[in-house]
Amino acid sequence: MHDLNLNSTIQIVSSVTKDADSISLPHNVLETLKEHTPVIVQGTVKGRQALVGKESTSAATGGKSSRITAVEIKLEDIQPLNTLPSDLIVASGTVFPPEQRHLQIRHDSSLREALKFRSKAARFIRDYLVDKHDFVEIETPLLFKSTPEGAREFLVPTRNTGMAYALPQSPQQYKQILMASGMPRYMQIARCFRDEDLRADRQPEFTQVDLEMAFANGEDVMRTVEDMVRALWSQLLEIKQSDEAFSRLTYDEAMSRYGSDKPDLRFGTDIRRIEYMLPVDLVSKIGPLTDPIVEVVKFSLSDDIAAMRQFVNAFMDSPEAQPFITNPDGQPGIFIIDSRRPLQGLQSFGFEAAEQLEEILQLQDGDLVVLQARKNAPFSGGSTPLGNLRLALHKAAVKQGLLPTPQGFAFTWITDFPLFSPNNDSDPGQGGSAGISSTHHPFTAPKTAADVDLLLTNPLQVKADHYDLVVNGVELGGGSRRIHNAAMQEFIMRDVLKMTEERIKDFAHLLAVLSAGCPPHAGMALGFDRLIAVMLGKESVRDVIAFPKSGKGEDMLVKSPTRMTEEQLKTYHLRLRDG
């Protein structure tokens, strides 16, 4: 008896019989089967042995150690269990479309290995948090209610006229309720749903590692998550992270130095403000903005000036450059340092500014000096125009072989986000009339007493006790210390966000819970799909999800979503409206 698993290599030994006219004989049946046909094989099983070294000896192997690497079956009978369609062509290099996701998985070993890795990571995280840190895994409902947390929801109609559930954007409110219920530490690998614009790192339904801790603050949560991440990398990737705490940047520092709230720290190229040193006429020519902030970043790719000129021209002619060329605040300026030209090619900067730039940036032949203007306003959102251009140029340089592909993992915490941000057209926010929305969600606490004082006088200056974990330019997740006082929570909703009475009533359950002696608490959620994609070096979370949605939110295999029938609409008391 030999134990086999799905990864075992099995060799079937069969021989031609004299009765070659009988198609039912095992060998003849074997010859007629199409590749990839599932079968039942009966025969005599024997282990096959391969020599692996000389260290240990035994009489059975003639003085060499051995181990069973596969099995051999002497064929006695074979029965096909299913058939394959004649038009299904499976050959080396065959690329299957998303409509045949089952064949993508079957014939792409990297997909199968990614799904196995995902399974191991989920099991490790559960065991680590529960066994090492005393978390309790608790399932929260998927049929929730509509509440304005910040993202668009998916509604689930019921047969009760006008009544609907909402799929949860996250288990946020339930886990805060658990903290008030006397559960000290909660965790869940949770399914979440958001009806938002899709990108490579977003899906309408996704998985997150969700956790919350009572009588805790952000520092407690960050330490716990750091410990888990180090252990995960060590166990699954065999990469030991330093025992030192992950680096930290405030939101303003990250935006000013890298033009992004999720910077990739594996490469430098810091951004600097330089409008103070530029001639007034140059600032006025950069773009249509009045009194703009002007920023610069340097790239050192090659001292071959001709090659740099070719690189810049090719990039500016590429589709990747179009968002920067069409920027309504002005196009970027890209200068190539050339010591043979006046002021090294920085004539338009004027003598004084060119000299300062040369000293500050330590310019050499072939360096690219990239200039970009932006509005003179506090940072908001996730990136600046120059931050985006910095990433695009770096990616193009790596693709052209001018820079090496960044290696390793560089973790950092981003802290001190603004508690509120101006409303925008893409996110519904909380629907208040104040013209601002919670940057994260309306349950995040102000960071300090001074920030509480600013709530009514200047809410856009209030810092949140919020923290994001970033690695290699990817936001793995975010968390915060929560508002645990009902009066403060209602004040934020009513007086700062200016939500309507009707919308505030949607949170009546939470306000009642907070008023019943809820302890201070903090938590975090890590995007599990992103986490696995980063660990495996995948470009898209679709490469680590068994059945992902397309860029339009469609499951191409099962063809969902589907148009509702008249019968379904009638059942749920719905009717379609044009437009």
UniProtKB/TrEMBL annotation:
Any one of the GO BP annotations: mitochondrial aspartyl-tRNA aminoacylation
Pfam families: tRNA-synt_2
Chain residue ranges for the region called Disordered: 422-442
Aminoacyl-transfer RNA synthetases class-II family profile domain segment(s): 115-561
InterPro entries: Aa-tRNA-synt_II, aa-tRNA-synth_II, aa-tRNA-synth_II/BPL/LPL, Asp-tRNA-ligase_1, Asp/Asn-tRNA-synth_IIb, GAD-like_sf
Keywords: Aminoacyl-tRNA synthetase, ATP-binding, Ligase, Nucleotide-binding, Protein biosynthesis
Gene3D superfamilies, sorted: Bira Bifunctional Protein, Domain 2, GAD-like domain
Superkingdom, natural source: Eukaryota
Descriptive protein name: Aminoacyl-transfer RNA synthetases class-II family profile domain-containing protein
Source organism: Baudoinia panamericana (strain UAMH 10762)
